[in-house]
Amino acid sequence: MILALAHVRMRLLTLLRTPAYVAGTLAMPSVILIFLGIGLADTSAEANAIMASFTVFAVMGVAFFQFGVGIAEGRASPWSTFERILPASITVRLAGAVIPAALFAAAAAGLVILVAHVFMPVALGAGAWLRLGLVLLGGSVPLALLGIAIGYWVSSRAALPIANIVYLGLAFGGGLFLSPRLFPDLLEAVSQCLVSRHVAELAWRAVADAPWSPGSWLWVAGYAAAGALLAGWGYRRDEGERYR
Hints:
mainly alpha
């Protein structure tokens, strides 16, 4: 436990010493909400749905940039090589990455919620808030695993553009910026196969006090399994190349 906390503290200090990363990760979803979302909410139901979309967007950003870009850049540093020979299990190292990411994701989503409350007629009951929190927690699993896969499969130079493409592609294709009702048939068919669309659907249903679709949870679970496979394969591949 003490060793895991030491890793968490080290990762947090590393991130906090990069103000551009902190500001970008925390502020970007809220800034985009101010420019794109506020004028579209005339009713509480619309405001709730837009807020839910941007909380998913905030969690996605942490998943792809802290895990994807962070791991890829860390692999290129001497510290990463040294860290792997320390007497610490993969569980300890994973905790050192996951806990700071969870804190940043909660802060980014919390800032979105604060902005939405200030500028939009958001109105949710306690049950809806709980369900939205469960969606963000469950949806973060496949997103984080996909981010980890990017981190281990691509180089540090390629990680940022690839993470941006995947991040914005999933956000747009998942209906986080534009209602899927406005999608042409081809884009709608593609959207139905994206993890971001199903996490968003669960979030929209949560804030609307509507029943969840079991199919969306199955898609989330399937993406989590695929992400775990790719992330584990990438980790073993990277370890084999470094220490063979």
